[in-house]
Task: inverse folding
């Protein structure tokens, strides 16, 4: 790869960054991202990056605030070191769930994060499966929005047959599930879910035929796993033969792992957009697929100023 292409990572997901750099056949930038004694983050770039095209790989996953601050400081350091272009590569975009005002006196956090990234000096954003696609419009800089569906679909293709049904766990995910079903030439069903409070959901009905079928629940993210575990129960109650789940981002906070372990889910497939090391040791039902090659190809095309539109399909 050209010498002016540089890859930098913080502490959020160094394993993914290493896989991306290996796919690109370039070494990660020599840098130091650590903290002072009082917890303040310190960033230092140990190489000359003047005039370089730098991609900063940093999902803003747990601990969200620390990883977001690391990203902002790395971008600022690169800007002050005269990098030609800075691209924030965010495999997981934190604060994406607050993308509009659903009640009085609440922030639009995803817009604030977009403003912070732009103010820090970001020239471009590369991300995957945003919780809400309209977040792209919060930026006044280019946003390349990838999808994990090709990676997930390739995995499920080996078990998919005429008795497979793709299931959206709520009405908001119907478009995603429909696109996934089209890829696998499978039928579609919907779980009617009514949320009573944040991270608390109640499954009501299953719309569509799931009897004697293999049901695959598709969502963009799994946080506390309340939705997918309740949906799995509803699908089994409606006659599904087996239930699997897939998501782009395995947040798995709070009781998520315990819920998955005790649920009727046979397998939960996710990507490595968020580090999964600890969760894999706690849950035998988890399967992690890598999106490193997808990101590496996108980075290569962006650097070469060639089209990336084929990666969005």
Result:
């Amino acid at each position: 790869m050209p010498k002016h292409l540089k890859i930098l990572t913080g502490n959020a997901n160094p394993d993914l960054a290493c896989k991306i750099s290996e796919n690109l056949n370039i070494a990660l930038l020599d840098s130091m991202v650590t903290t002072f004694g009082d917890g303040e983050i310190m960033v230092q770039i140990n190489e000359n990056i003047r005039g370089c095209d730098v991609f900063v790989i940093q999902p803003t996953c747990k601990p969200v605030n620390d990883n977001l601050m690391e990203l902002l400081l790395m971008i600022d350091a690169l800007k002050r070191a005269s990098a030609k272009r800075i691209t924030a590569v965010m495999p997981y975009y934190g604060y994406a769930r607050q993308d509009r005002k659903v009640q009085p006196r609440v922030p639009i956090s995803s817009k604030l994060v977009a403003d912070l990234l732009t103010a820090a000096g970001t020239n471009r954003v590369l991300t995957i499966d945003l919780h809400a696609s309209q977040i792209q419009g919060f930026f006044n800089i280019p946003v390349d929005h990838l999808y994990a569906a090709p990676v997930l679909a390739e995995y499920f293709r080996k078990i998919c047959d005429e008795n497979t049904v793709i299931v959206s766990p709520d009405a908001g995910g119907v478009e995603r599930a429909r696109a996934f079903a089209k890829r696998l030439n499978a039928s579609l069903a919907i779980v009617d879910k009514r949320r009573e409070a944040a991270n608390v959901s109640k499954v009501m009905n299953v719309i569509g035929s799931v009897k004697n079928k293999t049901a695959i629940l598709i969502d963009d993210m799994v946080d506390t796993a309340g939705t997918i575990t309740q949906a799995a129960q509803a699908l089994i109650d409606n006659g599904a033969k087996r239930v699997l789940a897939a998501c782009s981002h395995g947040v798995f906070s709070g009781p998520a792992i315990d819920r998955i372990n005790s649920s009727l889910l046979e397998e939960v497939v996710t990507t490595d957009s968020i580090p999964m090391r600890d969760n894999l040791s706690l849950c035998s039902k988890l399967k992690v697929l890598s999106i490193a090659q997808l990101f590496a190809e996108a980075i290569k095309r962006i650097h070469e100023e060639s089209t990336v539109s084929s990666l969005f399909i």
